[in-house]
Amino acid sequence: SGEAPTVGGRTSAEAFARAQAVIPGGVNSPVRAFGAVGGTPPFVASGSGPYLTDVDGREYVDLVGSWGPALLGHAHPQVVEAVQAAAARGLGFGAPTVAEVELVDEIRSRVPAAEMVRLVSTGTEATMTALRLARAHTGRDLVVKFAGCYHGHVDALLASAGSGVATLALPDSAGVSAAVAAETIVVPYNDVEALEQVFATHGERIAAVITEAAPANMGVVPPGPGFNAELRRLTVEHGALLIQDEVLTGFRVGYSGWWGLEGLREGWAADLYTFGKVIGGGLPVAAVGGRRDVMRRLAPLGPVYQAGTLSGNPVATAAGLATLRLADSSVYARIDQAAGVLRTELSRALATEGVPHSVQWAGSLFSAMFGPAAADEGVRDYAAVQATESWRYAALHRSLLEAGVYAPPSPFEAWFVSAAHDDAALDRVLQAFPDAARAAAAA
Ligand code: PMP
Is position 245 annotated as part of the catalytic site? Predict the structure, then answer.
């Protein structure tokens, strides 16, 4: 706090009014809108460690973390220093730099199945490229995705998508041609039989199965035991590629992402991986990586075209490299511990108020789902997510916001903590939970 509140108007309300006149919905990504929870989104002036300060001078404990990238908290001094040093050397060249190779090597050392990697600027580009590669490699057209999984705003992947598509209750997006939509098959998550059925019917036409390694865009819905391994088995059996989308989980849920928690132990890997968020440390970097024989199909080696003016941008690459180099096992241990405390105490507060709920989690990612069905059985797929008492979330969110806690403005998004969430920051959140749980109970 203490920053002069000036950015885009004198208050968040003024800034938002001005923004709405010139930016659709006043936001540059729908997930930032407050439609699902009500009220005006705070306009951020600055962030430091676990805190955000808005243009009104209010401080919040941030539980969104830029939707994932802020693994070390905001404005980590060593990351900022790396960015400043890179910026002083030039903002971008459109020619190769050594730091790009270093970032790719950092990724490969953590997920060896990413034998070759191409850097892009957004997760959307990464999944789009992964699909194109899978189609080129297999000579097939169809793609299988799971309901409630979000893979960016690629036309073919907007069917039954999570994240903002779920928050806005859209079955899919307008503007996607029928021809493109017809090439995507949507299967319920955690349902091996349904997938077997799809392969039995269309197996010879399926290029790839794409999945969030652990879904966190319909709220958190962890893969059941062995589910990802079944995807591996079925794709091998039918000659399709398996694309594990780790844009969100990659290098956030652990040193080697979700693969490090599951595939490493079970002894398998996907054909292609997509990464984003943490590998840019808050600046635009994402990546697609995987089997050498598949990746070698990319131009200029092969016929699959993919390119980007800003790909591997030196300032963004510096932020990602500094972030990953600081992200050692102690960082992940702290994040796991902090997430565990929040999960436990949120559940305790809700139980105290008699709110039936399930605090769902995958690694350090978690989200609260409400209602007797969620409480009894947990939530295993998107249909079950849609049957929860999600309206209770708005009241919970408003109460937290008033107490200075910035939780995701949607019941269908994961909560994120960082290694900078120290005991003081956690205490502030814990103190806000009882009132928030009361609000959820009364909703
Ligand atoms: N895949 C997953 C799993 C994601 O969570 C996201 C973004 N939330 C994306 C892809 C798309 O990434 P981007 O927003 O950088 O395009």
Answer: yes
Please choose from 64, 120, 124, 157 the residue to mutate so as to test ligand 1's pocket, defined by most ligand atoms within 8 A of CB: 124
Structure tokens at 76: 């980590």
Compute the distance between CA of residue 407 and CA of residue 366 in angstroms, rounded to an integer.
11
> How many structural domains compose the chain?
2
- ipTM for the whole complex: 0.99
- The residue whose C-alpha atom lies closest to atom 1 belonging to ligand 1 is 151
* Residue 316 sits in the same domain as residue 397: no
At 284, the amino acid letter reads P
Dist. CA 149 → ligand 1 center (Å)? 10
Q: How far is the CA of 163 from the centre of ligand 1 (A)?
A: 9
- Cα of 160 from ligand 1 centre, angstroms: 15
Is residue 51 annotated as part of the catalytic site, yes or no? no
Q: Which domain holds residue 233?
A: 77-326
Instruction: Record the pTM.
Output: 0.97
d(CA 346, CA 369): 11
Instruction: Give the ligand 1 atom nearest the CA of 246.
Output: 3
Catalytic residue, from 60, 150, 189, 382: name it: 150
| 215, part of any domain | yes
Output phi, psi for 56, to 5 deg: -85, -5
User: pLDDT tens digits for 207-262?
Assistant: 999 999 999 999 999 999 999 999 999 999 999 999 999 999 999 999 999 999 99
